[in-house]
Each structure stands twice: as C-alpha cells, then as structure tokens.
Inverse folding.
C-alpha cells in the first residue's frame, strides 16, 4: 500500500499515459485514497469522483479550464490553425446568411407575438399517409386512426373493424358483446386431453 504523498510515474502503477506523474492522495471529503494526476505541481483533484459528483452534480460542473489550456486552445485556432485563415466569405454567401438570420428572427417574432405555430396534424403534415375518423364501439366518441390501425391482421382476438378509446371501453364492450363472449368460451372448452384449446 503506497504512503500518502508518494509520487510515481504512470508506468510504475500500470497506467498507459507515459511520462505523467501521479500522487497517492486522500479525498478531502470521504478520505478515500487513490492515485491523482499531478498538474502544475499540484494534485488535479482534491475530491474523488463520487464526492465531486454529489457536490457539483457532475464531474465537470463548476470546474473551469486553466489559463494554460485557454492559451493552448486560443493558439490552436489562430493563424494557420483556423480553418478560415486567409479566406473570406463571398458577397453571395454573406447575403444567404443574412437572409437566413432574418427569416429566423421573423419566425421567432411571429411565434412570440401571435402564440404557438399552426398545427401540422393530419392533412397539413407533409408526411401524412391517410387515415380516417371512426367511432368508439362502446361510448361512441370520435377517434382518429392511422392506416396501420385500420388493417386487420391474422390471429387478432378483436378485429380492427372495432375501435375503442382505451382499455376501459374495450373491456366494457367485451363483457357485453355476445359474439366475443361465445368466441372466448369456445376457446376455453377442453379438448380430448382436458386442455383448453389455444
């Protein structure tokens, strides 16, 4: 077991990152001991991952890039590192971006001043593939059904010609429909071996 404050290299403790140094440190909250990466002469984290997650709500929440990291990112995106270095947008491209921004802001203004957008349900939707309004067989309420809900399939216990609002309506209809009850009773009749027919 390493001693607190002991420093070792990555290769010595079985880590793949070569050349980095690690210190055996204890969590400031729970006291759990673990290897912590050394950054700029100091342990990178004073708390273990579970404690940090509980306090901050996430491993990176509340943490910030160091000044060295900010400088590195800034340098990597400046000069030749920037994909737009030495290039300029054409007037046509600028006009296109200008129009797209104007359209976006006009749409947002319309949304905020006139309320929500118009509905794109059923015929108004470009992906609409048909369907029709049917009545619930139990209570008579109007229901909209897509084409896939109108087709019958082999082996269905209830034909797709029957439609219901919910399971409550369906169970009420099943308890009153004589044709359905006779079908259920016929399936429950025992065969020669005494097993019910499935």
């Amino acid at each position: 077991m390493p001693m607190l404050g002991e420093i070792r290299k990555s290769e010595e403790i079985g880590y793949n990152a070569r050349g980095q140094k690690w210190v055996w440190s204890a969590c400031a909250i729970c006291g759990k001991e673990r290897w912590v990466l050394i950054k700029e002469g100091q342990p990178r984290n004073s708390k273990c991952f579970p404690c940090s997650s509980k306090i901050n709500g996430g491993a990176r929440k509340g943490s910030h890039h160091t000044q060295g990291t900010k400088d590195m990112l800034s340098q990597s995106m400046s000069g030749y590192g920037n994909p737009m270095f030495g290039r300029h947008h054409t007037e046509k491209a600028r006009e296109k971006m200008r129009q797209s921004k104007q359209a976006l802001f006009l749409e947002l203004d319309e949304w905020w001043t006139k309320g929500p957008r118009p509905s794109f349900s059923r015929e108004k939707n470009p992906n609409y593939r048909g369907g029709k309004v049917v009545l619930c067989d139990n209570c008579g309420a109007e229901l909209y059904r897509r084409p896939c809900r109108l087709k019958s399939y082999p082996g269905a216990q209830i034909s797709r010609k029957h439609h219901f609002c919910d399971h409550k309506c369906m169970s009420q209809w099943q308890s009153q429909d004589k044709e359905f009850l006779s079908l259920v009773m016929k399936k429950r009749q025992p065969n020669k071996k005494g097993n019910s027919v499935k």
Summary: The chain has a mean pLDDT of 76.
